[in-house]
Amino acid sequence: MKFPRKSLAVIGAAALVSIGSAAYAGPPWTVSVGGSSTGSPASYTAATVGTNPDITFTVPGLTLTCDDGTAAGTITPGATGTDGKAGEITSTSFNTCNGPYGIALNVTQNTTWDINLDSDNVGGVTPGNIGNVDASVSNPGGACDFDVTGSVGGSFDESTQQLAVSGGGLTVSNVSGCFGLIANADPATFDGTYQLANIANITIAN
Fold this sequence. Notes:
Elements: E1 30-33, E2 42-49, E3 55-59, E4 62-75, E5 85-98, E6 104-109, E7 113-117, E8 125-138, E9 144-157, E10 162-177, E11 187-197, E12 202-205
Antiparallel strand pairs: 1-12, 2-4, 2-11, 3-4, 3-11, 4-5, 5-6, 5-7, 6-8, 7-8, 8-9, 9-10, 10-11
C-alpha cells in the first residue's frame, strides 16, 4: 500500500471496514447486513471523517498526511469467526497527500484488502484489522517513491457505522529518493476513520 506517510487500507476501507492475512483464532461472531445474515456480499462506499487532514501515515521521525480519502468494497452477511474475514476493500482514493518537505504524493492500492474481525463485539465495537495491504506511494516528479505492505489494526462501531483504522503492522520497502528520510524496512502506522454509506445497517452478533 503506497501511502503518503499519512495515508492510507481498505478504507483499507482501506477507508473502510478496517485489515492482513494472519490466521484467526477467535470467537464465533456473525455479521448481519440489514438484519440478515444470509445473502450475497453487500457493497458499500465510505469516506473519511475528522479534522483535516483526515489521514496520517507515520514512519520513524516523519508524518505524512492526506486531506481526505474514500474506500469501497463489500461486507459479507453471515461471515463468522471461523476465518475472521468480514469483507473486502476493493478500491481506495487518497486526496491531497503531502510527503517530506510538503511534496505531493499519490497513493495506489495494488491488491484487494481484507476486513478482518479479531474478537467479539464489546459494547457495540468489534476490534479487527485491515489485512493484505499492498500499496504504492509516488511523487509525480520522482522525488520520493515507496511501497507499503502488511496489516493495520482497526475497529468497527455499530452505533456510528464507522470503521476506525489505526496502528502499526505496516512495513516500507522499495524506497527511492525521499531525501533520506524514509528507509526500507521502516515500520509504519496509519490513522483514519471511515464513515460507511450506501449499505444497510451492519451488526455483529456474538
